[in-house]
Design a protein that fits this description.
Layout (H helix, E strand, L loop, with lengths): L4 E6 L2 E6 L13 H15 L5 E6 L10 H7 L4 H10 L3 H6 L6 E5 L2 E3 L1 H7 L3 E5 L3 E3 L13 H9 L1 H10 L2 E3 H6 L5 E3 L4 H13 L3 H13 L5 H16 L2 H12 L9
Parallel strand pairs: 2-3, 3-4, 4-6, 5-7, 6-9
Antiparallel strand pairs: 1-2, 7-8
Family: Belongs to the enoyl-CoA hydratase/isomerase family.
EC number: 4.2.1.17
InterPro entries: ClpP/crotonase-like_dom_sf, Enoyl-CoA_hydra/iso, Enoyl-CoA_hydra_C
Length: 264
Amino acid sequence: MNDFLTIARDGPIVTLTMNAPEKRNALSIEGGSTEAFTEACAFIAAERDVRAVILTGAGSAFSAGGDLKAMRDRYGMPPAEIRDSYRRGIQKIPLALYDLDVPTIAAVNGPAIGAGLDLACMCDIRIGAESSSYAESFVSVGIVPGDGGAWLLPRAVGQSRAAEMAFTGDRLDAQAALACGLISRVVPDDQLMEEARALAARIARNPPQVLRLTKRLLREGQHMRLSSLLELSAAYQALAHSTEDHREALQSWFEKRPAQFQGR
């Protein structure tokens, strides 16, 4: 990993921490942050015994979004070059993070603004500290969501709320984010990582192959017809029924003991 992300592993749980607190974990269109995420996601995808991932930020912010100083320096760049810089840069992050097979949790420790909010929306589950806040703020700096926010945010909060957030750039506090379903819980600041790790541990106790198949069904269900999803579900179910972990789950239930899943 490069310096933008630190990676820590505790058994089947990987924690990724954005580690640029002096820049409020701002993301760059090109360069360090993009490479960090794509490398981390490639590492996680290759580790078949990883069962859950937590993403958080160092310092007082989850991520303040795009680097405004870099935007200022790019002003006047030819449009074709800007387009290409997005495509070969920050847009690689949603393609890598959103498509991870393992469940992901965003532990939002502070402001998640612009691309920072979209980054949180790339995760399956979002939990927020009491001090966290959320804004789809691109319009406020005269740009559009360039990293997938127009696709991600409506799926998190619905079309009407997403439009209101994107058209106004207004910021939501943690309780407002909870009320609209953007996050699933609010916890005291000093308990955020404890809660995230506990949630990740509950997820990681389950059969890893089935976790990955379940996540893929949830992802595919966002754009497939019901009939097509049912066909895919039947195929995945056939795979799940054939695993040793399925047999272990049934045996442990009948024997009234904790299951020991091996990912086979």
